Automatic annotation (TrEMBL):
<feature type="binding site">
    <location>
        <position position="116"/>
    </location>
    <ligand>
        <name>S-adenosyl-L-methionine</name>
    </ligand>
</feature>
<dbReference type="InterPro" id="IPR023148">
    <property type="entry name" value="tRNA_m1G_MeTrfase_C_sf"/>
</dbReference>
<dbReference type="InterPro" id="IPR002649">
    <property type="entry name" value="tRNA_m1G_MeTrfase_TrmD"/>
</dbReference>
<comment type="subunit">
    <text>Homodimer.</text>
</comment>
<dbReference type="Pfam" id="PF01746">
    <property type="entry name" value="tRNA_m1G_MT"/>
</dbReference>
<feature type="binding site">
    <location>
        <begin position="140"/>
        <end position="145"/>
    </location>
    <ligand>
        <name>S-adenosyl-L-methionine</name>
    </ligand>
</feature>
<comment type="similarity">
    <text>Belongs to the RNA methyltransferase TrmD family.</text>
</comment>
<feature type="domain" description="tRNA methyltransferase TRMD/TRM10-type">
    <location>
        <begin position="3"/>
        <end position="232"/>
    </location>
</feature>
<dbReference type="InterPro" id="IPR029026">
    <property type="entry name" value="tRNA_m1G_MTases_N"/>
</dbReference>
<dbReference type="InterPro" id="IPR016009">
    <property type="entry name" value="tRNA_MeTrfase_TRMD/TRM10"/>
</dbReference>
<dbReference type="InterPro" id="IPR029028">
    <property type="entry name" value="Alpha/beta_knot_MTases"/>
</dbReference>
<keyword id="KW-0808">Transferase</keyword>
<dbReference type="GO" id="GO:0005829">
    <property type="term" value="C:cytosol"/>
</dbReference>
<keyword id="KW-0819">tRNA processing</keyword>
<keyword id="KW-0949">S-adenosyl-L-methionine</keyword>
<dbReference type="GO" id="GO:0002939">
    <property type="term" value="P:tRNA N1-guanine methylation"/>
</dbReference>
<protein>
    <recommendedName>
        <fullName>tRNA (guanine-N(1)-)-methyltransferase</fullName>
        <ecNumber>2.1.1.228</ecNumber>
    </recommendedName>
</protein>
Length: 242
């Protein structure tokens, strides 16, 4: 069964890249079944209004609950016998990681992405739907985007490339499962000398043991320099291992 993705947004055209490249291939190969919806299709006024000012005052606008309620009622009940997981991208969520991507790719068969805009969605929408469906709020990282659409593109790409049956992912999946929490080593191709920059000698040696040792050193050095947070976790983990 393909992984079904529904995306609800006020900017459906933002999701056009879902037809491109890896995601397009996954769709064509029948691994992904993507449905993009315009939230305004569930409004009933002439201006197709989706937002209003916040109770209690403050800057910006809040997305009204009614269009979200009607949209999610309809979409989430559109496949008899199946229950989706709702995914709400937002800076206040659990950080989306490779581990989360892999869990979504391997354990879920239907994701409904809820793209908020403005200052956010009326909190009662979460209360209502979290009581009826599994719901995850997921953040790309500690910065603020204007809405969830770009996050949906990032998340769906990370998930799609891990889908079982995605051509070409077998070898890279094996490699990723062995990354062991470190950053990747640097890679080189021909020519061996370019603008005075040389490919490290060891990679030309043909000595597989020395090459593997060099790559592991590079991974440790890079991780220590660029991601001390990952390094700390890696060191704690290797102490725990026998
Ligand atoms: N929407 C706004 N900011 C976001 C973030 N950092 N991650 C996911 N969705 C968002």
């Amino acid at each position: 069964m393909p992984l079904r993705l529904d995306v609800v947004t006020i900017f459906p055209e933002y999701l056009a890249p879902l037809d491109l490249s890896l995601l397009g291939r996954a769709r064509r190969e029948g691994l992904l079944d993507v449905h993009v919806h315009d939230l305004r299709d569930w409004t009933h006024d002439r201006h197709r209004t989706v937002d209003d000012s916040p109770y209690g005052g403050g800057a910006g606008m809040v997305m009204r609950p009614e269009p979200w309620g009607e949209a999610l009622d309809e979409i989430c009940s559109s496949v008899p016998g199946r229950t989706p997981r709702l995914v709400v991208p937002g800076p206040g969520g659990e950080v989306f990681s490779q581990e989360v991507a892999s869990r979504l790719a391997l354990e879920e068969d239907w994701l409904v992405f809820v793209c908020g805009r403005y200052e956010g969605i009326d909190e009662r929408v979460y209360d209502e739907f979290a009581a009826r469906y599994p719901l995850s709020v997921l953040s790309l990282g500690d910065y603020v985007l204007n809405g969830g659409e770009v996050a949906v593109l990032a998340m769906t790409e990370a998930v799609a490339r891990l889908l079982p049956g995605m051509v070409g992912n077998e070898a890279s999946l094996v490699e990723e499962s062995h990354t062991g929490g470190l950053l990747e080593y640097p890679v080189y191709t021909k020519p061996a000398s370019w603008r005075g920059h040389e490919v490290p000698e060891v990679l030309l040696s043909g000595h597989h043991g020395r090459i593997a040792a060099w790559r592991q050193e590079q991974r440790l050095a890079r991780t220590a320099q660029r991601r001390p947070d990952l390094m700390a976790r890696y060191e704690a983990g290797s102490e725990a291992r026998p």
